[in-house]
């Protein structure tokens, strides 16, 4: 049974519990609106993942959506249509209106990027409707699991815009086929769990949301048994490698490990291997 995490009880739109030691389970908690996002929610998301990033009692994170119908239906377009920034100030010229919109988009991007920048590995469980912003969020996670019957789509062209919060930047780096990426982004067509697995967008397909959360918690638990120095370093270096040439990444790895190879976690891991015991690592 999951235990409460009092430090995260103040978030209105996200429920955070601990299903096992060192693990946080974050649920997008607006099921009555299919977990669709408005501005207050993405600002909360940034605050929540920034807090998880530096919480030494958390070593891995599971992210899912509350309710049976949707991980997230994406942007709450009704709420977005009333956003003052997007409406533009009366009498403002194009440059000034554009400056306000640009700042708004950059802040929104930063909120979703907080998942990717979180020092802890984040495992996403997709189910049901997973449209638009749901794909942005999933792309920012480290591992993706999907339930059968999920309906995914990069939906933005259907509402008259090019996706601007992360899908067009991250999705090509999550899968191996630019042709497939362009197909789904240009057409906004739905794709299912099996297709998502076939192109490499997700690690595995499970029978339903409950099984997905079970699998995600199991994986998060395994990760949590490892050295937090090693895990956080591995995430950092993998993300750097994705975005840089091999030579630059090797140099970055050498600099990173010049400090982290001095950790006591290496001694603890080697000693436990020799003694055939389970290692214990200090908080980070």
UniProtKB/TrEMBL annotation:
Q: Name one GO molecular function term.
A: delta(3,5)-delta(2,4)-dienoyl-CoA isomerase activity
A biological process (GO) of this protein is:
fatty acid beta-oxidation
Q: Which Pfam families match?
A: ECH_1 (PF00378)
Q: Please state the pathway this protein functions in, per its UniProt record.
A: Lipid metabolism; fatty acid beta-oxidation
Keyword field contains Cell inner membrane: no
Q: Cite the InterPro entries for this sequence.
A: ClpP/crotonase-like_dom_sf, Ech1-like, Enoyl-CoA_hydra/iso, Enoyl-CoA_hydra_C
Q: Which family does it belong to?
A: Belongs to the enoyl-CoA hydratase/isomerase family.
Q: What is this protein called?
A: Enoyl CoA hydratase
Q: Please tell me the species this chain comes from.
A: Coniochaeta pulveracea
